[in-house]
Amino acid sequence: MVVNPQSQSALFVGLVTLDLIYLAESAPQNNQKIVASDYTVAAGGPATNAAVTFSHLGNQATVLGVVGSHPITQLIRQDLATYKVAIADLEPSTNAAVPVSSIIVTQSTGERAVVSINAVKIQASSSSIPSEILHNVDIVLIDGHQMAVGIAIAQIAKAKNIPIAIDGGSWKTGFEQLLPFVDYAICSANFYPPNCHTPAEVFAYLSSFEIAHIAITHGEQPIEYLSCGNYGVVDVPRIQAVDTLGAGDIFHGAFCHYILQNSFTDALALAACVAANACQFFGTRRWMDSPKQC
Question: Has the keyword 4Fe-4S been applied to this entry (predicted)?
Answer without folding.
Answer: no
